[in-house]
Each structure stands twice: as C-alpha cells, then as structure tokens.
Specification:
With 169 residues, the protein is of the alpha+beta class. The protein is built from seven helices and six strands. 36% of the residues lie in helices and 18% in strands. The N and C termini lie far apart (49 Å).
Length: 169
C-alpha cells in the first residue's frame, strides 16, 4: 500500500511539473516548421492550395469577412503571398489582405478543413465556406462542409493536430 501511495505521489508531482508554465520540453523529432513559403521545402505539398498558382480558385478571401459572401476576385487586383497569387474584388480588399494576410487567409493553407481533420489534404470549392471564431474554413464541396459542420469544434481540434504534418502525405 505504501508503494502505491508513494508511486501515486511521485506521478502526481511529475504531472504537475510538466503542466507548469515554467516547464520546458524538447520538441519531438518529427516536429515540423510552420507552413510558410519560407519553409516550403520541408513539405511534399505546397503550403497553400492553389490551382495553377492561383489561391482559392480566384475568390476574394477578404470578401468572406466584409461581404459575408463568396465573391470572385479580379486579376487586376492581385497579390503574391505564401507562394500563391491571390485575387481580390477591389484594391481596398487587396490592401487589407496585404496588410494582414493571416487574418484573411483560409486555415490550413486553403486545403479542405474536413480532409485535414481526417489527416489528408483535398481541393476546395470556394463556395463551401464558413467563418468560425474569425477564421475562414473551406471544404471540398457543400456535402463535405455539412459533414464537417456536424462537429466543428471537434473537427477543428483534429485538424489543428494534423496541420501542417498532412502536407507530407
């Protein structure tokens, strides 16, 4: 009985120390860098889903936030970011994006949120979208988006665990 109690107390102390804000840990050997164009060579797939170099199939990422709608962008208002060309419906939207791309760019590099939650990557339909907690999520199509929406918090949690590792699948 004394052994079990001592073992339990030691285990609890180790657990509490590892949760301490001052605790340090070494990164795992399979840790990957952030998914940015600067680190693109660490991944097998591009860090931004783009067809022929064009992100979101030409949709304006800012319009999802400002117009609450899918809006096709115009090549006259384009911006290069993170290895892809982004189109916008206006110079104002382009400039908003250029100033804060992480605010407007879709999560998981614009890959399908459901696929990333399942440990894969897939193309997206820019009309199958949702903003959750100020972040843009895209899905393969409306049917997949509906499946993803059945458990948004759970699917986001799983996707966060898989990203950016899925870029090496």
């Amino acid at each position: 009985m004394r052994f079990i109690l001592t073992f339990s107390m030691v285990s609890m102390a180790v657990l509490m120390a590892s949760c301490s804000p001052n605790a340090t840990s070494s990164p795992s050997s399979d840790a990957l860098p952030a998914a940015t164009v600067e680190n693109a060579d660490a991944f097998k797939q591009p860090v931004v889903y783009a067809e022929d170099g064009l992100a979101l199939k030409g949709a304006d990422p800012v319009a999802y936030f400002t117009d609450s709608a899918y809006v096709q962008g115009d090549a006259a208002y384009s911006h290069e970011w993170n290895g892809a060309t982004w189109h916008f419906a206006s110079a104002e939207n382009r400039d908003l994006f250029a100033g804060e791309p992480e605010k407007y760019a879709p999560q998981y590099g614009g890959y399908c949120a459901w696929a990333v939650s399942q440990g894969n990557t897939a193309a997206v339909d820019p009309e199958a979208w949702e903003i959750v907690d100020g972040k843009l999520y895209l899905n393969y199509n409306q049917k997949v988006k509906d499946r993803w929406a059945a458990d948004i918090p759970g699917n986001i949690e799983k996707a966060e665990q898989n990203w950016p590792r899925v870029l090496n699948n």
